Amino acid sequence: MSILEIIKSRRTIYQFIPKLIPLDSLNLCLEAAIWAPNHKMTEPWRFWVIGKETQSELAVIYAENRALKRAEKGSDNYDDIYQKALSKFLAIPQVILVGQLLAKDKVTIQEDYAACSCAIQNFQLAAWEIEIGVQWSTGPIIEDKRTYEILKMESIDLKLIGALYMGYPNCVGKSTRQPIEKVTSYLA
């Protein structure tokens, strides 16, 4: 596929078949990620490839956050939501967390966030080319201080900006975009 075909066909994937992703495929996606443009070559991105033991720890955080958002702790509804969320998170074939090194000034922080976003897009496009789907989540798991504790890091110097849930797609949805004429102005 051409790069434009990959860009146009890529979808966020929410359902995966239970199949492990080979390490060389993960590394290919990470290699694509680190070639993202970044102002002043700051290379602000950091990645954590999560193994099954750590995924089990993160699953508790994920499930608690999901359940607390919808029900009161200790209720039957809470327990039901918690169990479903726990199972859902544990079923994700691969989780990768993405962080951004925090610069000292606001302008660089903004530039670095843009660079990290580009890195994630590169990652997703490389994954899609080898038939791996990705969901970029910015949910509460990346804000929870327990996640930082599991990763043994301080949120002073580094901020988590995404959880990449990835695997071989179970189903791929369709999408459309507005024509460029609706979103573009050509000025003389």
Automatic annotation (TrEMBL):
Keyword terms, alphabetized: Flavoprotein, FMN, NAD, NADP, Oxidoreductase
Transmembrane segments: none
Span of domain Nitroreductase: 7-168
InterPro entries, alphabetized: NAD(P)H_nitroreductase, Nitroreductase, Nitroreductase-like, YdjA-like
Signal peptide start-end: none
EC number per UniProt: 1.-.-.-
UniProt superkingdom: Bacteria
Cofactor(s) annotated in UniProt: FMN
Family assignment from sequence similarity: Belongs to the nitroreductase family.
Full protein name: NAD(P)H nitroreductase YdjA
Organism in which the protein naturally occurs: Hydrogenovibrio crunogenus
